[in-house]
Amino acid sequence: MNLFRFVARLAAPLAAAATLAVSPAVAEEAKEQYFPLLTYRVGAYASSGIPGWGGIIDYFRYVNEVEGGINGVKLFWDECETEWSVEKGVECYERVKGGKNGSPVPIFLPHGDPISKALTEKSVADKLPLITTGYGRTEAIDGRVFPYSFTVMFSFWSEASSVVNYIAEQVGGKDKLKGLKIATVYHDSPYGKETQAPLELLAKTYGFENIQIPVPHPGNDQSAQWARIRQIKPDWVFLRGWGVMTPVAIKTAAKTGFPVDHIIGGIWSGSEEDVRPAGVVGKGYLAVTPFPAGQDFEILKKIRAEIVDKGKSDLKDLKSFGSVYYNFGVIEAIISVEAIRTAQKKFGVRPINGEEGQWGLEHLVLDETRLKEIGAEGLVQPLKLSAKDHEGGGSGKVLQWDGQKWNVVSKGWVASDRDLLLPLIYERAAAYAKEKGITPRSDGATN
Amino acid sequence: MSSIGSDAASDFIAATPDALWPRVRRALPIAALLAAAFVGAPAVGDDYWFNAILIPFLIMALAGLGLNLLMGYAGQASLGTGAFMATGAYATYNLMLRLPELPLPASLALGGVIAGAVAVVVGLPSLRIKGFYLIATTLAAQFLLEWTFNQYGWFSNYSTSSSISAPRLVFLGYDLSSPVARYLLTLTTATVVTLVAARLVRSQTGRIWTAIRDMDTAAAVIGVPVARGKLTAFFAGGFICGVAGALWAFAYLGTVDARSFDLDRSFQAMFIIIIGGMGSIAGSFIGAAFVVLLPILLSRVAGAAFGGAVDAGQLENLQNVVFGALIIVFLIKEPQGLAALLARLGRRLSSPSRR
């Protein structure tokens, strides 16, 4: 059995690794709030990630340097690279969840759909709230079943509904939707299929024809799908792409003669990085997003003056300033900071922990007044979260690509039919609770 | 292989008192290791060690072991590891969901059996084709199965995102949802499967596999049942990968969808055995340690040494460069894998003392 002796030798490197593992620091009156960041600066999705981390870090720097922290409690952070892979994400989560320098972790941003799924239960055990903006499980809107998952702002179901409502806005009302053909061209993956259920319900309600066309990963040849579209002649195409699939879809659509200004991209088909590779034919392409692009929002002007122009920005490429992904980062940072601020009101002005962060999120109210104070009017939609509603908003803006940049073309925020969708979401959450043996919390639970 | 052969030969000698001591001495390190893993680790480990290090390491070692039986011992190259893992995960999930009265080990084992059966079907072309062509057919299975689990809602109980989530892990009334319990579940499974595999490769079946690997025409000529041997290898490999997949889904991540078992996972398992050592049980574990743990170690060292001082993106790229360079260095030093390298090292260390 001498081969097992080599297994024994394995113990040596393991022991060496053990000494490197950071033991959780002993808490001693921490003055600063720790906020770990999971990032992907390498790997297939790095180009969309990097502007986002710039947005988060620039806003944190702005809060620290201009506002003197959150009520005086400064933020400090470090990055853990995930490459968008679930194992690395779980490792990072376990590495940072204990806090740092005496400060606990208030809120955790998984930045990756598979990572957020793998952390769904772990975060409940660790009492650490996850914010997933524009991704994650739709059922997690029901905070009674998913107490520590927050699909804040815009779930995929809201995305689908907002697109339908935008089309209604264009054709002159929801009653005009009857008889329209709306084709959804989607990435054939769990993410891509997520809008099938809401679209089916919306089609039944409004009487439009719901056509679903899958594109296999990665989607770098879509001639078959667009030939089919040419045959069906839909009035609108809802494009739920991922990575290279989006520019290829736009190019193929243009080639087959489908009007690009009748294609509406979803959240992950609506960034500069998605449409620029399509070249000139991308002009007129639409996309719905909770992260409107633009540099003219008050807070972006302030960040530009205080951080970017002073050479303190995390961005290497300043062209990304004000892009969809940069603004995504700023928005995520604003929501996190405001949740911490809300929690401080109840628990005291000090670094707060995950359980308190969860309370802060469930009592987060960002109304027009507060958004104006922050300077995020028009950038962040009004939000009101509760135990029963971890989404809180459910609206998106529709952007149009003019060949150089995105411009908002919808009349403000396009709301989704949440009253119609929520019962179905609650039903699915209840089914999940039953399967997992979870007893849902009561509506008014403050935990 | 010679070392395994001579060990096996010594096993056939009746355990006379004289021969007993060397066998006990040989078993000592593995006994010490098992004691450390079963008693020591739970006593000193924390969540980070279980959730981020030990559980994924053991599971990937198990997946590597499955592929090693198939590819390292029986010579049937396969890129279907991810698909077999997915089959095991989805099969176990459906067994736990639809037959809740089955105890957990039975669900796991049955999930493995289903994965093994699927692997046998995938392995049928191996009766006619070999080498790279066989890789292509297993690759087809990889894509087909991943697509199937994503496409048909029944497999995931019509979940919105086609993901499967572990029902409560309970065995004999004990709740296995804590990190330590999930670690012990993984460790126990890995230990049992590894011991069985170690016996298996020295049995008649294992010898048939090795004969097929070394030259299947010659094996057929001397009367080795080649077809049966290939298919048993696919079954054994698929079974172990299936169990690994179920553990990956339920003991490690909790919630997964088919993307967790994509082609990258198959490549990862293949790299584990190429780096660790093909045709070596220990090689699967050493390779898994290298592929799964070394990047984590590098990241922690880099973070401690340069964190904040160097641009985060460049630091990450640098780690990947170092990791890649290490793979090349080790494979040049020892193309037979780390297991052979360590064996050489072991011989060099132990021979002077014996003199």
UniProtKB/TrEMBL annotation, chain A:
Coiled coil ranges: none
DNA-binding recorded as keyword: no
Classification via Gene3D superfamilies: 3.40.50.2300
Sequence ranges assigned to domain Leucine-binding protein in this UniProt record: 36-403
Signal peptide feature range: 1-27
Pfam families: Peripla_BP_6
Keywords carried by this UniProt record: Signal
Domain of life: Bacteria
PANTHER family, A to Z: BLR6548 PROTEIN (PTHR47235:SF1)
Family: Belongs to the leucine-binding protein family.
Protein known as: ABC transporter permease
TrEMBL record, chain B:
Keyword Ligase: no
Bilayer topology term: Multi-pass membrane protein
Keywords: Cell membrane, Membrane, Transmembrane, Transmembrane helix
InterPro entries xref list: ABC_transp_permease, LivM-like
Molecular-function annotations in GO: branched-chain amino acid transmembrane transporter activity
Transmembrane segment boundaries: 27-44, 50-70, 77-96, 102-124, 131-149, 180-201, 233-255, 267-298
The keyword Plastid is assigned to this record: no
Subcellular locations according to the entry: Cell membrane
Any GO CC annotation of this UniProt entry: plasma membrane
Organism (species): Hansschlegelia plantiphila
Protein name: Branched-chain amino acid ABC transporter permease
Main location: membrane
PANTHER family, alphabetized: ABC TRANSPORTER PERMEASE PROTEIN, HIGH-AFFINITY BRANCHED-CHAIN AMINO ACID TRANSPORT SYSTEM PERMEASE
